[in-house]
Write a structure and sequence with these properties.
Blueprint: E1 6-11, H1 15-27, E2 32-37, H2 40-49, E3 54-58, E4 60-61, E5 64-65, H3 66-73, E6 84-88, H4 93-102, E7 106-109, H5 112-116, H6 118-197, H7 203-235, E8 241-243, H8 245-259, E9 266-268, E10 275-277, H9 279-296, E11 304-310, E12 317-324, H10 356-366, E13 371-375, E14 381-388
Parallel strand pairs: 1-2, 1-3, 3-6, 6-7, 9-11
Antiparallel strand pairs: 4-5, 8-10, 11-12, 12-14, 13-14
Helix pairs in contact: 2-3, 6-7, 7-10, 8-9, 9-10
């Protein structure tokens, strides 16, 4: 319970009304400090000098009216520092509405009944004002926290963008800088191989060592190409335009057939709906997924690859897939599937650098899509990827 007195500012030009309210307050079970003003100017001056628990403001004063005084009270702070109860001798509904709009917390009609209840009115206004101030403080704290959060997010975003740019620049520079010494190693290995091949000794063991060096430089060169490929993807500017995915898939398959004529692979490109996207990036997606299916069906009795789409529950995206009947993989290893330079245990004997699926994931992500795989050992693999629906 409050023990300190409530401080009241009473602005009223009627001595009789002020006296009636003083008597009513003195008879109430509460301690009061009452400051009085008889016009608007002195009332505003008193309001600005002290902190009040409640302001009783007469609507009609010799030098102004209650609405104008309310507006002047908030000139310097944009909000009232205490609850204001507007008082008038006449019951005017429009005055009440205007007073509440201007910031008054309550409105009473002067008279014996109102004066008898004035202590109750003041205590109610002071209690409600404390709730309002608590809410304002909470809102101000929330706004300050939001501003700080936005500042931190912006700072972290900028730091992350800078870090990514630096990593990409480093990756690009290192990839280029590695090429020269790698070419030198491969070149000297080739010279040494020719020298040993000219009956200059060394034997098969030495030639095997040289072959391993050349094989290692070849793998390193492939990895460098992969690094450069990812770097280019990250810096690529996307150009959205209509893309015929069915035609794109058929052309990629024909390229594989022309370079691997010894194999017979059944490929079904069925019904693949067109889309809108970046042709180069979408080519990266299909190229790597079809290449993966082509390589992992090498030992299949009758290799089969199917490229198509499925109906999904989300009308905002289309789900495409590339399915094969190859060797499949253990689903427990799926977290490594799209990581750069990560190869699964079942990839033994399959050429590759472990970069193709990482590039496919990046290209899909740049379109705002997702990519995942469903597989089991010796039961084939289905790669799914989504693209947002855009008018093609």
């Amino acid at each position: 319970m409050r023990t300190t007195p409530l401080r009241i500012l009473l602005i009223d030009d009627s001595e009789a009304d002020r006296a009636a309210m003083r008597r009513a307050l003195e008879s109430a079970e509460c301690e009061w400090i009452i400051d009085e003003a008889v016009d608007g100017a002195s009332g505003i001056a008193a309001y600005r000098r002290a902190d009040y628990d409640c302001v009783l403001l007469d609507f009609l004063l010799p030098d102004s009216n209650g609405l104008k005084i309310l507006r002047r009270m908030v000139e310097h702070s944009d909000e009232l520092s205490a609850p204001v109860v507007m008082m008038t001798a006449h019951g005017d509904e429009q005055v009440a509405v205007d007073a509440m709009k201007a910031g008054a917390l309550n409105y009473v009609i002067k008279g014996p009944a109102a004066f008898e209840r004035i202590a109750h009115t003041i205590r109610g206004a002071a209690r409600e004002w404390r709730h309002i101030e608590a809410r304002r403080e909470a809102e101000a704290t929330s706004r300050a926290l939001n501003v700080e959060l936005e500042r931190r997010v912006s700072q972290r975003t900028q730091e992350l963008a800078t870090t990514v740019e630096e990593l990409e620049a480093f990756c690009y520079a290192v990839s280029h800088d590695l090429r020269a010494p790698l070419r030198a190693v491969d070149g000297f290995a080739e010279i040494l191989s020719e020298h040993l091949g000219a009956d200059n000794g060394g034997g098969p063991e030495a030639r095997e060592c040289i072959h391993r060096v050349q094989d290692a430089t070849s793998r390193m060169s492939t990895m460098i190409d992969g690094l450069l490929g990812i770097s280019r993807l990250r810096r690529a500017e996307m150009a959205f335009e209509p893309v015929d995915l069915a035609d794109l898939a058929r052309r990629i398959v024909e390229d594989f057939r022309s370079t691997d004529k010894a194999r017979h692979v059944e490929v079904d490109t069925g019904s693949i709906p067109p889309t809108r996207g970046d042709p180069g990036l979408l080519s990266v997606v299909l190229q790597n997924l079809i290449e993966n299916a082509w390589k992992f069906t090498t030992n299949a009795e009758q290799a089969r690859i199917e490229i198509g789409h499925t109906g999904g529950g989300d009308p905002t995206e289309t789900v495409y897939y590339v399915r094969d009947n190859g060797r499949g993989f253990d689903p427990s290893q799926s977290d490594r599937l799209f990581a750069a330079f990560q190869r699964l245990e079942n990839a033994t004997g399959i050429d590759g650098s472990g970069i193709g699926l990482a590039m496919a994931k990046r290209a899909v992500s740049l379109h705002g899509g997702r990519i995942w795989a469903d597989s089991a050992p010796n039961e084939g693999t289905t790669f799914y990827f989504t693209l947002p629906c855009r008018n093609a």
